[in-house]
Each structure stands twice: as C-alpha cells, then as structure tokens.
Specification:
This protein has 404 residues and is an alpha/beta fold. It folds into two domains: 153 residues, Aspartate Aminotransferase, domain 1 (Alpha-Beta Complex); 223 residues, Aspartate Aminotransferase, domain 2 (3-Layer(aba) Sandwich). It has 14 helices and twelve strands. Strands 2-8-7-6-5-3-4 form a seven-stranded mixed beta sheet, sandwiched between helices. Strands 9-12-11 form a three-stranded antiparallel beta sheet. It has a two-stranded parallel sheet with strand order 1-10. Strand 5, helix 8 and strand 6 form a beta-alpha-beta unit.
Length: 404
C-alpha cells in the first residue's frame, strides 16, 4: 500500500469530537449521559438570521462569491470589528470572510512561517488543540507558553520574553480563552505588547471568537495598543455570538495580509457559503436582543456551575472571565477516588456516572505544578448542569469510600 505523508501522520485532532463519538456510542447503547463536551451554544440561531438564510435560498443566491466574501458582509464585519475594538481603522478591504474562523489559524501560520526552516510559533497551553496541530502540519515549530491557575489562566509576560527567539514568527493569543474561560486583561495585554515591541519580526494572531462573551470586564484587543494593529491578525466570527456554528462563517482582518488570506481561500474553499454569508450579514446588522439574551444566560449558568463545582468534594473552580467554559481543578478528587490523573478521572466519570467532560490533556501537555483539570462546557441547560454536577459529587463520594 502507498504510505501516508509524515504531515498526515502527525496531524492532530480536536478531542472534543473524539469524546463526543464515544458519548454518542454509549447513548446508542441506552446509557443516560449528560454531556459537557462540545463548545457550542445550545440555542438556535436567531429567527431573523434563519429567515435571512431562507430568503437567500429563495432568491437564488446559491453560487460562488468572491473568495474574500460578499462586499456587504465585509463592510458590516469591518464596522462591527472596529466598533468592538475601540474604533480601530478597519476597512472593508482589510476583512476576509472564511468558512468559519478555524481555517484562519492555518492561513495565519502558512502566511507567516516557512515549512521546515525552524520558524517558531508561540501558542497558549492549555489551548485550543488545533493551534499546535496546525503549527506542526504547516512545518513550523510549536512553542507553548504556559497558562497558570495562579494567574487566572493567563501567562507571565516574562516567560513569553524568554521564549521569543530570532526564529519566532507568530504569537497566538486567545481571549476569552478556550478551554479555561480565562481572559487577557488590558493590563496583561499592555505587558505583552511591551515585550513584542522589542521583537518587530513577530506577528500576532488574535483569536477573539468569544469577544462578545466577555463577562469579567469590557472586551479589549491587543490590536488597540500602540504599534500592535498593523501586525495583528484579528479573528472573529458568527459561530459563538449568534449560535451559528454550523453556518461556518468567520472573518479575519489585517491590512497587509488580507490579500494573502484571500489567496489561501481561493486555493482551498473557493469561498464561504453564499447563503451563510447573507445570514451573517443579518446577524451583524439586525437586532441584537437574541445575542444579548444568550450572553446573559451564559453568565447565569457560569455562576451556577462554578458555585456547584466548588461544593463538590476534592474540586475547586476559579470563576472564568468569559466564553462558556469552566476549568475545575480535580487534583484532590483524583486522589480521593484513586484515579491516576484527570484522564482516568474523566473516563470513570463517563462510564460510572454518565457525565461527559474533557480532560486537560485534550488541550495540550499538562502544565507542570498546576495539578489536574477537566473542562466543562456550560452551554447546557440549568437542569443538565445541576444534575451533572450532582452526579459528579455522588460519584466522588461513593468511590472515596471504596478507595479508603
């Protein structure tokens, strides 16, 4: 048989979908599973957005669009991203529409590094697993910067400075953050920018897909700081804010790289779905009550799940600043039930208690000295949150007796 390429063999995955397949298999067997695995809103897209998609279909908007997206959406996205970020000078020609925000991770790496030359990309750990996967697949060298619980899952700018070398070409920032729910405050971003000003060769990929789901304080982008806008690829999209994950619409902005990102789309997807683009236009320009209602619901669920988790034996959970993820520390709980680590804890919680979460190792190498963690996506009903955390608590209590 012909062999696979080294690139294909090394390509990682997004373990949320791997665990989801396991969850679905158990459900097909009749097991009662409460899942907190997938990071997507549990709401439908707003009705006026749905209607815009239907209208586009009925009006025959079925064909290709320009690779960078339809002009009305680029204009709307430019205005939206600029207003969200303190009035940045984002022009429609600086914005590129993609089939979701995720492809821009690869396009950014491909546009700023060269394969096999030793170019380095610094990325957050724990982090969205596709960062590391795409860095490796694109032939660059992954360099993790550690997010620590004591810093509310931000990183130390001094550590960043130690990691930057002449080969560093790109820094990936994600705020609000998946999987921890942490945010990079303006103060933290100012310290990061101060480091980056010493290293003008480093681009920034600002993954800000959760920008509208910032709870701790007003959202702030590193692109708003002096000298950062021109070197920052801003990535945002429709998936999280308007519950449009399956519509696959993201948008990225950079005045220099927009034409390059456009060429990548021409070479891969041709363009994003025209139907989805018209729906996204309505999402941005239309009423925002549904988006604000979803955000408020996530805030209420955050407070609920954090309060409940902190009452579970052996579990502590910091209050996430944004997105819809909780990242509880289960180090003591692992010891109580005799689980070797968070992955063993996760598997037992799924198979013995019917509660599906993700382990920290699904988001990168475990941070030394920070203990064991699991991720809950609280994009779930209040009933599911209450029932799922209660099952977890009962599971730990019952197995503590057995371990003892």
């Amino acid at each position: 048989m012909p062999l696979l390429s080294q690139r294909a063999r090394s390509l990682g995955t997004e373990n949320a979908f791997v665990v989801l397949a396991e969850v679905n298999d158990l459900a097909r067997q009749g097991k009662d599973i409460i899942s907190f695995c997938i990071g997507q809103p549990d709401f439908p897209a707003p009705l006026h957005v749905q209607e815009a998609g239907i209208k586009a279909i009925r009006e025959g908007k079925h064909g290709y669009t320009p690779s960078a997206g339809i002009d009305p959406l680029r204009e709307a996205a430019a205005k939206y991203m600029a207003e969200m970020r303190g009035g940045l000078p984002i022009r429609p020609q600086d914005v590129v529409v993609g089939a979701g925000a995720k492809p821009f991770i690869a396009y950014a790496i491909l546009s700023t590094t060269d394969h096999g030359t030793g170019d380095e990309v610094i990325y957050p750990n724990p982090g969205f697993p596709i960062y590391e996967s795409q860095i490796i697949a694109c032939g660059a060298r992954p360099v993790p910067v550690q997010l620590r619980e004591e810093r509310d899952f931000a990183f130390d700018p001094a550590e960043l400075e130690r990691l930057i070398t002449p080969g560093t070409k790109l820094l990936i920032l994600n705020t609000p953050h998946n999987p921890t729910g942490g945010i990079l405050t303006r103060k933290a971003l100012e310290a990061i920018a101060a480091v980056l000003r010493k290293h003008p060769q480093v681009w920034i990929y600002a993954d800000e897909i959760y920008s509208r789901l910032c709870h701790a304080e007003s959202f702030f982008s590193i692109a708003q700081l002096p000298g950062m806008y021109e070197r920052t690829i801003i990535s945002d999209g429709a998936s999280k804010t308007w519950a449009m994950t399956g519509w696959r619409i993201g948008f990225a902005s950079n005045p220099q790289l927009a034409p390059v990102l456009t060429r990548w789309i021409t070479n891969t997807d041709s363009c994003a779905s025209q139907i989805s683009q018209w729906a996204a236009l309505e999402a941005i320009n239309g009423p925002q009550e549904a988006a604000e209602s979803m955000k408020q619901s996530f805030l209420e669920r955050r407070d609920l799940i954090v309060g409940l988790l902190n009452k579970v034996p052996g579990v502590t959970c910091r209050v996430p600043g944004g997105a819809f993820y909780a990242w509880p520390n289960v180090t003591e709980a692992c010891g109580l039930i005799g689980a070797a680590d968070s992955e063993a804890f996760r598997k037992r919680l799924l198979h013995e208690a019917g509660v599906a979460v993700l382990a920290d190792i699904h988001f990168g190498a475990r941070v030394a000295g920070d203990g064991q963690h699991v991720r809950f996506s609280y994009a779930a009903s209040r009933e599911a949150i209450e029932k799922g955390v209660a099952r977890m608590a009962q599971f730990i209590r019952a197995n503590t007796k057995k371990a003892a």
